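Two records follow; treat each independently.
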Amino acid sequence: MRICKENKHGILIKTPELFDFKTNLNYLQRNPNECMYEVGEDKIIRVIEINQLRTLVCISEADNEYLAVEFLAGARLESMEDKEAIVRYVEEWFDFETDLIPFYKMGSKDPLLEQAIERFYGLRIIGLHDLFEALCWGVLGQQINLTFAYTLKRQFVEKFGETLEYKGKKYWIFPSFDKISGLSPEDMSDIKMTKKKREYVIDIAKLMAKGDLTKEKLLHFDDLKQAERELTRIRGIGPWTANYVLMRCLRYPDAFPIDDAGLINAIKLVTGMERKPTKEEIREWASAWKNWESYATFYLWRMLY
């Protein structure tokens, strides 16, 4: 955990050297239909749920070295344990523990990455802390464009999620797997996703409610391929969804959704190719990215959105 301080409004968290708050803020604002947080006036407002407590926080830049986390509403965090949990949550969300120096050293000489690194210097892989949310987002996003995926997520969250209210506004909490595990596909029929996707989401919720699928279990695997195999055993989770979750939630540095349409389109944009690159060509380019495949993918995605 990074050095932090307390003040009368909340907590100050030391940021790593290669971190640019505004660059990350710009990423978080890429779709106006995002429902899990609100971004405006150089601040992020969102609900954080830790130790079975829900608190609404405002995250802003205190100066070039600290993020300020101000507690706005919800549970009052009195214990040091709870405050440390908030710090860990923010650190994980912004991936503060990763040292980007080796990535930038490699990527600044890479023909596919050099432009993205120059444009988005200080960008971190923004994480998805909750495994169920990450899996749902992966399933919802299968074979549709990003705009429609955000629409589906909002419909899902607003129908089955809960809220904290502050100054007349609702701030959403992602639906729990316990709640979704008790639903039938028909209960979700007014959400514009396919019946198969509704079944997949409910099946995942049931596995998590039984304790058969947990973030802790997936983090205990020795390598990426073991964790990927475990995820792809689950109905509705293929290699793309598995690698997306391994990248955004479980922080495997070598997770690589090689068949991702966004990755392919970003490569076409950067290289000027008119045709779709072959998987063999992508693997050849990616051979220079060893143990940085996740960051390379994330930065290439950012070239598009």
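The next record belongs to a different protein.
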Amino acid sequence: MTAVTPAPPSAAGAPAPTDAAPPNRPGGRSRLPAAAGFACGAALLFAVAPLALSDFRLALLAKYLCVAMVAVGIGIAWGRGGLLTLGQGVFFGLGGYAMAMHLKLADAGPGGMPDFMQLYGQLDELPVWWRPFASPWFALPATVLLPMAVAFGLGSLVFRRRVRGAYFAILSQALAAAMVILLIGQQGTTGGTNGLTDIQGFFGYDLDDPVNQRMVYFIIAGVLLALLALARQLVHSRYGELLVAVRDSEERVRFLGYDPASVKLVAYVVAAGMAGLAGALFVPAVGIISPALIGIVPSIEFVIGVAVGGRATLLGPVLGAVAVAWARTALSERFPGTWTYLQGLLFVVVVAFLPGGLASLWALARRRGAERAEVSTS
């Protein structure tokens, strides 16, 4: 008889897999619910929202969806990997400034200088490090690769030294503060406190035209759906299982022969790339990028949105980010003097009564329905 070699245990210490795929892998669950969810999301974003919302509200929704892209990355790093990233504003800002620099140079024309450089009068010619951003072939990849490179360098130093928990959160938050100080101090080349403003064109399209604004919205909506699909594939892969195992028992994963630092580094770099892409698309949607949009407070607001939506799910961070951003706009319009307190109260209520976030409402409703059905049957 031929000997059968037993399969090695998983990182979480579960029994060896059988021929049937486990329920938490793509092969073991029906893909119809996921496909139906993406179809519903596409219908809402591409059909319902443009018809139901005015141009102003649709532009606000485009802004909210950019925040939701950052939330998708935080959901992977924090929800699956346990990495409380309080400095995602840094990567959001790197992507945003890279895109804004290219668009400002495009508005200035060949050989021209951005308007704020001429206004401040501190420079006679374009800085050397600005010049590569005149090319879209350099600027577009830089919006994603530059944040990922910074995250790779920082993560390599931090995770190799086993910095985690609150220490990692404080370190990432300090990075956001340092980024803001650096941008404000370089007024002649970064616009200082004002940032890069009055962006008028987007690759030859006038952003003042409502038709072009809708085009930017459709691009943002499509990219968000693509990021969700990528995140789902990553979460339900073998790497996703290993990331959860590192979150739950890092030492045990290390004893099994894996390198937890490399596993966490991948999640951190992916989240940074998503934040950079969100910042790049935020610029044509809003027309500005400034230090006030990438500092400590915006970084914390990104995490709050994920916590409100439910960090343990795929769709929860998106729902939470959009809900928190919408609540901020709605409350500030109706209660200009007290909207910050109401927003804080909303966060406390959700965390206290829905620890799983808004995404847990569906599971809670199903559980209540099952309990009522069982009671009526008995």
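Discussion point: The CA atoms of residues 87 and 305 lie 14 Å apart. How would you locate this feature using only the token line?
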